[in-house]
Amino acid sequence: MEDGGHPCVCLGADPGSPDFGVPGAVCIGRWKNNGWQVLSRAALCSLNAGRFRLPLVQAVKQLVKELNDEILLVDAPGITRGIAGAELLLGLTDAALIQRILVLCQKDADLPYPDELTSAQVKIQRVVPSINARRPNRRNRMINRTALWDDFLIDAKEMRIDLSHVSLTGTPPPFNATAQWHGRQVALMNQQATLAMGEVVRMENKTLTIRSCGAEKGFNQVIIRDACRDTEGYLKTARHAASAESRCFSPFQSKTDTMKTNPMPFVRMGGLTATLMNGVFGDPLVHLRIMNLKQSLLFDLGSGERLPSRIAHQLTHVFITHAHMDHIAGFLWLLRARIGDFPCCNIYGPPGIAGHIQGMINGIHWDRIGENGPHFCVHEVYGDHMEKFGLQAGKNKTEPLGQEPVFDHVLLETPEFRIRAVELDHGIPVLAFSFEEMPRLNIQKTRLSELNIAPGPWIGELKHMIAKGNRDAMIRLPDNTCLTAGKLADDLLTVRPARKMVYATDLADTASNRDKLILFAQNAHTFFCEAAFTLKHEKKARSASHLTARACGEIAQAANVEQVIPFHFSKRYEHGPQEIYDEVRSVCTRLVSLC
Asked: Taking the domains of the chain in order of start, what are their residue ranges?
């Protein structure tokens, strides 16, 4: 048409699979030099045309007003089923003043949405696709839109936005869920006009740091929806946190339990799952499963009957808060399950824990075990150091294994995670623990392909150097060229922010305990915190050195956690646990409770 002297523009209204322009936006382009030249855009910040069909139609209507008397082609989203597609068909027809609809459809096939096509009162033309035509698969669509997004951001600049001074609209994550902001597509607006688009680098204290292209001033509105760069660098639709992260039913839930009588919270943090195995009324025991490592950790060791023996076989580390019976009695289950050829299991706990465990081992007659009894390495935590002991079934005494220093509360550090502990007061010393993911560096595969660099061992070396902070290290690429780690990281790496889970139970409501725990749990993704009593039984809570539900909520709120899981309820609330949840919710709404 352009060659025939008919000026033609295209309106790309498929935000998830655009042929040109910016994904997550509606774009107008003019054909020039064998390609579409973008004239203007209206941001959606979503790839989901069906879910956000009203903003999509409004954006189309806004852009059409900018056009002169030109032939307009509209590339509509490929939705051909359901109410979303039906509403989009009529909405786009009206918004873009459509005169003819081209329906890509096989010759003998029924037209989609026949009633809507009839009611549109425009010319309908069937277009039969080539026999060689194939719909791009999901992965190819993802790669193509990510390449467009990377091209758009190639000259992006970093800027900070104080969200208290602008309107924040769309479907942004909660302010306290800081990890969920990273990589979100963002648009800077003024009276429905898109001034700039970019992506979130981080969000701290209601201040947004973004990389964006476009005007840096003059905006009064920020839009964020569900378009987001994932940990591998691809632009995708973010999962809804509330539905994906937590629930009160676990795969381990017993048929004799119901969610109303003994909720059993189950939490997912990326490739990790954490399950309160005995529910909120049973013995404390959280099973943390690291899926990609096929590794299990336990926090406290109450009754282990709900855990299958294979979990006991895969256990590498157990973290015990203190030696009261409901926190350690499950050791006998663990001891029995590990009879056989299993590696040493590491146990961490407060001073004296080795003696308590040795006493439980000595309570059993081991005359048939020989040298093959289960063995454990027990670490007693003394603030700035740990005392280590070797214990084995069939041996009556602990074997001192020396000391190990503790820096910054870190008990254990691996390439994937670290465990910290802080001592609290329960009338006796108790430990609270945190599990912290290491920040993960991911290669943007699309950028790797664009730069024509072959993958290889150099990627591991690059990640290692960046993790060490050595940006000046030279990395040799497969073609024998060398670049600094910093240069390669800027071009190729994305960082998945670390997330933290904190586990704290059996502590007195004192100013010292509160101060320590609030600092320790600061900005945690998930906070398991005891809530033994309600305020009407505050005297009982104080005498037993436990927290009330209100204290649990106040600590969680002050620590700015993303979600708190109250547990270790007194059995006096067994027929009415909602009372506990209501009291926590009165001061902190970010809790996982009855579903």
From this structure: 8-127, 138-238, 244-252+260-437+499-585, 441-496
Domain 8-127 has CATH 3.20.110.20: no
- 408 φ, ψ to 5°? 55, 35
User: 524: closest CA among 586, 591, 435?
Assistant: 435
Which residues, 6 or more positions from 81, have their beta carbon under 8 angstroms from its beta carbon? 112
Fold of 138-238: Elongation Factor Tu (Ef-tu); domain 3 (2.40.30)
Asked if 250 contacts 207 with a C-beta cutoff of 8 angstroms, the reply is no
Tokens matching residue 6: 């008919």
| pLDDT (tens place) for every residue of the chain, 595 residues total | 556 666 788 999 999 999 999 999 999 998 887 788 899 999 999 999 988 999 999 999 999 988 887 788 999 988 777 888 889 989 999 998 989 988 888 888 888 888 888 888 889 888 888 888 777 788 888 999 999 999 999 989 999 999 989 999 999 988 867 778 889 999 999 988 999 999 999 888 889 999 999 888 899 999 999 999 987 788 999 875 443 345 544 444 444 444 456 778 888 887 789 999 999 999 999 999 998 788 899 999 999 888 888 889 889 999 999 999 999 999 999 999 999 888 999 999 999 999 999 999 999 999 888 888 899 999 999 999 999 999 999 888 899 999 999 999 999 999 889 999 999 999 999 999 999 988 778 888 777 877 888 888 898 889 888 877 889 999 999 888 999 999 898 888 887 777 899 999 999 999 999 999 999 999 999 999 999 999 999 999 999 999 999 999 999 999 999 899 999 999 999 888 889 999 999 998 888 754 3
Name the CATH architecture for the domain at 244-252+260-437+499-585. Answer: 4-Layer Sandwich (3.60)
CA distance 43 to 84: 20
* Same fold? 8-127, 138-238: no
How far is the CA of 147 from the CAs of 150, 399, 445, in angstroms?
5, 59, 10
